[in-house]
Specification:
It comes from Effusibacillus consociatus. This is YkgJ family cysteine cluster protein. InterPro entries: Puta_zinc/iron-chelating_dom, UPF0153_domain. This protein has 90 residues and is mostly helical. It has one domain. It is 31% helix and 0% strand. The radius of gyration is 14 Å and the shape is globular.
């Protein structure tokens, strides 16, 4: 499956814990990557500085669904399901 044009869900919805050029602390969920272009494409695609986590993420129907809206819903559910619980500081 190829990436759907104009989507960018994986560059917005999911969190990335590893450093990204311009985002040394990683990328929080729901925050667009600083390299997401106005065409919703990765500005680092094909470049050596693109993080391995991004290079290894491959579009699939399970992740992308059949529309941009479905991709956001699927990835939001995946992000929630894989999020580690936070400790109560009390």
């Amino acid at each position: 499956m190829d990436c759907r044009g104009g989507c960018g869900a994986c560059c917005i919805v999911i969190s990335i814990s590893s450093p990204i050029p311009g985002m040394p602390g990683g990328k929080p969920a729901g925050v667009p990557c600083v390299h997401l272009t106005t065409e919703y494409k990765c500005g680092l695609f094909g470049k050596p500085e693109r993080p391995a986590v991004c290079r290894n993420l491959q579009p699939s129907e399970d992740m992308c669904g059949s529309s941009n809206e479905e991709a956001f819903e699927l990835l939001e559910a995946l992000e929630k399901a894989t999020k580690l619980p936070t400790l109560d500081p009390r």
